[in-house]
Specification:
The structure holds 2 protein chains of 2 kinds. By secondary structure, chain A is of the alpha/beta class. Chain A has a domain at 5-46 and 60-92 and 225-323: P-loop containing nucleotide triphosphate hydrolases (Rossmann fold, 3-Layer(aba) Sandwich). Chain A has 12 helices and 12 strands. Chain B is an alpha/beta fold. Chain B has 10 helices and 12 strands. Chain B has helices spanning 48-54, 82-88, 100-103, 110-121, 127-140, 157-169, 187-204, 215-221, 239-244, 249-257, and strands at residues 6-17, 20-32, 37-41, 63-72, 75-76, 93-96, 175-179, 207-212, 224-229, 232-238, 305-309, 312-315. In chain B, strand 7 (175-179), helix 7 (187-204) and strand 8 form a beta-alpha-beta unit. The chains are: A alpha/beta, B alpha/beta. The A-B interface holds A 55-56, 164-167, 194-200, 202-203, 221-225, 227-228, 248, 251-252, 261-273, 275, 277, 280, 283-284 and B 43-44, 156, 158-159, 186-192, 195, 213-217, 219-221, 239-240, 243, 250, 253-255, 257-262, 264, 266, 268-272, 274-275.
Chain lengths: 330, 324
């Protein structure tokens, strides 16, 4: 199949230095780091929903920020179309931001409470010198309509606190879309939205994707939602991708024990079904001291000798399914 | 009627704010048997947390319980004097909250939390004895007894929640109210904590009131479900009846809007609109502005709770013809 890559990430790493007290610095020479993102490689294809999923602390949000150039990587490369973002100076990056936007988890914290919704949505147009005055207003009204805040004349002059959570998330989408981006990073966009409204927001995201030919990088801890929205999924554990592939493959044939455990732990709304939850030993270790060998081995019920010594590489199971596990058979 | 452990009748709680009265819990009634699990499901602002707090009269001001009864062992908790209620809190009815960090005292060792709790209710127990009991309780919830000398920040989120559960069962209460106990936790830890609650529940024969926004968890883990919408209970039945035959349009909508990981090509349906502002609730049924079955009557009159089949209650005009 021929896919056009819109974003490509190569061996991307982000280590955050751990702050130490003065005394500790005197006594120890070594510096320690949080290995938030520890060499990951993947690409996002034009027009798809690519999901990064994993538990808190697995590095999914950091990856999103690295891709947008919001924080610099420790090493590795990020390409947007054919441009290497990680090499761009701030001015070029600013221009590129028009094409790459983000939607955050908390739609309240991401709006200035003193700025009217219409102003906030139109603000990027001014910053990028694209429209002012009447033209800007027209664009904002059209965008409000597009995200379902109708009638737009009624919403344009409201303040964020006058909107419900779902409406605020719609407004956040309007602001992200006003510059006509091609690529959107959506970081847990529905996890703070009430259950009855989640579906409307997700459906809106999918409608907009179609209508505006967008590509999404969707970041979530919720695999049930990931299954609903994604085309492809990457499962992250302690800064690394442990399994990646077509959604149907990942859910019907999970190969990595961590993916299997994650899937087995998701509650299923069916009272007749008694699931067996796969037991994992202990809890996620600290990202400062990554276990040697396979980083999952201390918790893995199937770990063998090799898992404690060698770090497994991602290898192909089928055409669109790769997994980093010594025991997985292709 | 069989003898119930806890019976709640027509419980009504209001917040008297500067902007006006908000009826956060409006005439909720249910009963709970020994070792039963009741799931209270609702969105934010539906009144589910206020309902939980009012069972032990801990509704924060400006909230007040304006009506109703909470019967436990033949006594109405809402009529007890303050000293009497204190002997019930923690001992007969205990709580597990969402965020264990804010419920544990950061400058107190884990063991001290148990000593304080046990000695408050059982002054004759020595410190040593209380610590011994704490060690056993920690073992019961899967924590090494040595952690008794740790401070809360030395434990992970999942372990802290285990400590909270150990504290909740320390005095062998009749009822544990768990308010979103796993919402702050990752899915694997969540599953473990939910398993633990089940184990502890059968070990101590405790009834559990599980307050959650997550209908999937409630369906998976509870015997009975009570669905709250805008302060009212709109449907209440055992979990099988609720899934087989959901009656209230809101319940039906919720069930259609939650993703089920075991289904392929699932089409989710959304409930249009958003929950009402309780300062200014709609006339008639509180759900009609979002309801696709809404009739003229729903906008004017408020439906009452009716029993459509045995122990299946619903607040909707659609079912009125079905019962006498």
């Amino acid at each position: 199949m021929n896919h056009i890559e819109i974003v490509r990430v190569e061996n991307l790493k982000k280590y955050f230095p751990v702050e130490k007290s003065f005394l500790e610095r005197l006594l120890t020479r070594t510096r320690s780091f949080v290995h938030a993102v520890d060499s990951i490689t993947f690409s996002v294809r034009k027009g798809e929903v690519f999901t990064l999923a994993g538990e808190s602390g697995c590095g999914k949000t950091t990856t999103g920020k690295l891709i947008l150039g919001l924080i610099p990587p420790t090493s590795g490369k990020v390409f947007f179309k054919d441009q290497e973002i990680t090499k761009l100076d701030s001015e070029k990056l600013r221009l590129l931001r028009r094409k790459m936007q983000i939607i955050f988890q908390d739609p309240y914290a991401s709006f200035n409470p003193r700025m009217k919704i219409g102003e906030a949505i139109g603000h990027p147009l001014e910053i990028h010198g694209l429209a002012t005055g009447e033209e800007k207003r027209k664009k904002v009204l059209a965008m409000l309509e597009r995200v379902g805040l109708t009638p737009p004349e009624q919403f344009i002059d409201l303040y964020p606190h006058q909107l419900s959570g779902g409406q605020r998330q719609r407004a956040a989408m309007a602001r992200s879309l006003i510059l006509e981006p091609e690529f959107i990073v959506a970081d847990e966009p529905v996890s703070m939205i009430d259950v009855s409204l989640r579906t409307t927001i997700i459906d809106l995201m999918l409608d907009l994707k179609k209508a505006l030919q967008l590509t999404y990088l969707f970041i979530t801890h919720d695999l049930a939602i990931a299954k609903y929205i994604s085309d492809r999924i990457a499962i992250m554990y302690l800064g690394k991708i442990v399994e990646m592939g077509d959604k149907r493959e990942i859910f019907s044939n999970p190969m990595h024990p961590y993916t299997q455990a994650l899937l087995s732990a998701i509650p299923v709304p069916n009272p007749e079904r008694k699931r067996k939850i796969m037991e994992l030993k202990g809890e996620v270790p600290s990202a400062i001291k990554i276990p040697v060998g396979c980083r999952f081995h201390p918790r893995c019920p199937f770990a063998e000798d090799i898992c404690m010594k060698e770090e497994p590489e991602l290898k192909a199971v089928t055409a669109d399914h790769i997994v980093a596990c010594h025991l997985a058979k292709g | 009627m069989q003898k119930q452990l806890l019976t709640v009748e027509n419980l009504t709680v209001e917040y008297w704010t500067k902007k006006g009265k908000v009826r956060a819990v409006d005439g909720v009634s249910f009963y709970l048997g020994k070792a039963e699990t009741l799931g209270v499901v609702g969105e934010s602002g539906s009144g589910k947390s206020t309902l939980g707090l009012s069972l032990i009269r801990l509704v924060p001001p400006p909230g007040r319980i304006v009506k109703g009864h909470v019967w436990l062992e033949g006594r109405d908790i809402l009529k007890l004097r303050e000293e009497e209620i204190r002997s019930i809190r923690g001992r007969k009815i205990s709580f597990v909250f969402q965020d264990p960090m804010t419920s544990l005292n950061p400058v107190k060792k884990i063991g001290e939390h148990f000593v304080e709790l046990i000695q408050t209710h059982e002054p004759k127990v020595s410190r040593k004895e209380a610590l011994e009991r704490a060690e056993q309780l920690l073992k019961d919830v899967g924590i090494q007894p040595e952690r008794i000398d740790d401070y809360p920040h030395q434990l992970s989120g999942g372990m802290r929640q285990r400590v909270m559960i150990a504290l909740a069962i320390a005095l062998n209460p009749y009822v544990v109210v768990a308010d979103e106990p796993t919402t702050a936790l990752d899915v694997i830890v969540q599953a473990k904590i939910l398993d633990l609650l089940k184990v502890v529940q059968s070990m101590y024969d405790t009834a559990l009131i599980f307050i959650t926004h997550d209908l999937s968890i409630a369906i998976e883990r509870c015997d009975k479900i009570l669905v709250m919408y805008a302060g009212q209970m709109v449907e209440h039945s055992n979990v099988r009846d609720m899934c087989r035959n959901p009656q209230h349009p809101y319940t039906q909508g919720l069930l259609k809007s939650i993703p089920n990981i075991e289904l392929t090509e699932q089409k989710l349906e959304a409930i249009p609109g958003s929950p009402p502002d309780l300062l200014n609730p709609p006339n008639g049924c509180r759900f009609w502005p979002r309801c696709s079955y809404a009739m003229e009557r729903c906008r004017k009159a408020e439906p009452q709770l009716i029993e459509t089949e045995t122990d299946h209650f619903v607040r909707c005009f659609l079912y009125e013809g079905m019962v006498e």
